[in-house]
Amino acid sequence: MKLVSYQRKVEITSVGNQLEWRAGLYVGKGIIDIAHAVKGAPSTMQGVLDEWDKWYPCLLEQQRVEYGGFIPMEEVQLGAPIPRPPSFRDFYAFEQHVKTCRQRRDLEMVPEWYQLPVFYFSNPAAFVGTEASITIPKQTMSLDYELEIACVISKKGIDIPIEKADEYIAGFMILNDWSARDIQREEVKVGLGPAKAKDFATSTGPCLVTVDELQGRLIPSLKGNRYDLQMTASINGKKYSQGNFVDIYYTFAQMIVRASEACFLYPGDVIGSGTVGSGCLLELGGGEQYNWVQPGDVVELEIDHLGTLRNTIIEK
């Protein structure tokens, strides 16, 4: 099942982009408005997630029903599937990415990285969807993309055990953790991690793909589920990055366990994987072997079964 947040283009034209992002069910030909199709259902994705156990079975049934009231794709604009999540934690879970980026700075791996998954909080108010324009911060000359996958939490929980953690995942979506590398280099010297280097934009989408859609690619383990999903990134049609979700060192179950220690997770919370191996220009030699992302560039992230997340870069 593929869930989206959308607005109708004709309404955006008439009143501006101040409309509610409505919850929709993607059915190939178009979008079914969930609140219109399912009696009593919420009109937003956050509302659906707040009562996930109630609405998820209804939506599974709805996608099997022939419904004539869909909205054609050419008439809608997709937003971030969760337009403004309650919180956003981004982890650092792919070993190849961590190793390569540290090697480029002549640094060894930190032994503590292998002891527990780590994350930083980023800005949930900066989420945008596919086809949205990304404005380069005027303070940076080193804009980079980051190819990631994210999960969305489906129910409230604290101190979640590893054997239950995957049950808290509503689904997965593509995530691009845009980064201003020159700003980041200065910030991390202080020791608190990136902040302004990351808070200007995070794009996700094009849809939230529920776990049931991915069963054919499932690789279970005692430490949580992995999925065999190819991940690629391109700029202006040229492929730069290629990896696979299955190569993740820490599973999302392990990340959920860590994030929920002495802390509640809530429906709609977003957890990012961190960058897949080769999944950014910094890792590939950005600034030396490749130019950083420039105004006019079109960046496309693609993950098997999750779709393509496309954004165009603009100047302020």
Automatic annotation (TrEMBL):
Domain Fumarylacetoacetase-like C-terminal, residue spans: 88-313
Stored SUPFAM superfamilies: FAH
Alphabetical list of InterPro entries matching this protein: Fumarylacetoacetase-like_C, Fumarylacetoacetase_C_sf
Keyword annotations from UniProtKB, A to Z: Hydrolase
GO molecular function term, any single one: hydrolase activity
Superkingdom in the source lineage: Bacteria
PANTHER family in UniProt: BLL6422 PROTEIN (PTHR43211:SF1), FUMARYLACETOACETATE HYDROLASE (PTHR43211)
Protein name: Fumarylacetoacetate hydrolase family protein
Species, as recorded: Brevibacillus laterosporus (Bacillus laterosporus)
